[in-house]
Amino acid sequence: MGWSGTRIIVRFEGWALSIEIDEEEINDGGSRYDVAVDGKSVSTLALDATGAQTHEIAKDLAAGTHVVTLTRRT
Description:
- With about 70 residues, this protein is mostly beta strands.
- It contains no helices and six strands.
- Strands 1-6-3-4 form a four-stranded antiparallel β-sheet, with no helix packed on it.
């Protein structure tokens, strides 16, 4: 996800979703991503360290199928 506007769209069944991101270098405060769950913007994920880290993207969701979109801002 090297370019602004790049997206990952994930459809899953469950109540939570985490993602592991390996940030190669921090420029201007690190990468930022918009997080949307089921079409609704819920947060901004800001990476503040290099290396592989796990980030909770969604939690406490109702039972059923969900769609999560992660869009790179920077």
